Amino acid sequence: MATVTLTHTEALSRFGYALSDTTRARILLALREAPACPSDLAEGLGVSRQVVSNQLACLRGCGLVQSVKEGRRTWYRLADAHLAPALGELLGLVLAVDPQCCGPECTCQ
């Protein structure tokens, strides 16, 4: 079994934080398919460019996406090749989720 370090747990926490927001999760899933620019992400997700820009800044800060300037456009892609298959594996999980848990009226916290 591999040794788990503080670095591992911090990286996993950042990944969990990124996935804890629906818009960030949707952005990661969109970038899993192909790189995209913020305007295309905003249109595809049905949110404002400002929302996408804010969430991309968070994802960059978490080290999950990279930006690449190309002329006047900036393209975003997943920062590591391991992220796409990891997201695919997470999508493949079947979870028994209590719809009352972790919602606005959650008592588990």
Automatic annotation (TrEMBL):
Residues 4-98 form the HTH arsR-type domain. It comes from the Bacteria. CDD domains: HTH_ARSR (cd00090). InterPro entries: ArsR-like_HTH (IPR011991), HTH_ArsR_DNA-bd_dom (IPR001845), HTH_Metal-responsive_Reg (IPR052543), WH-like_DNA-bd_sf (IPR036388), WH_DNA-bd_sf (IPR036390). This is ArsR/SmtB family transcription factor. It comes from Georgenia deserti. The lineage of its organism: Bacteria, Bacillati, Actinomycetota, Actinomycetes, Micrococcales.
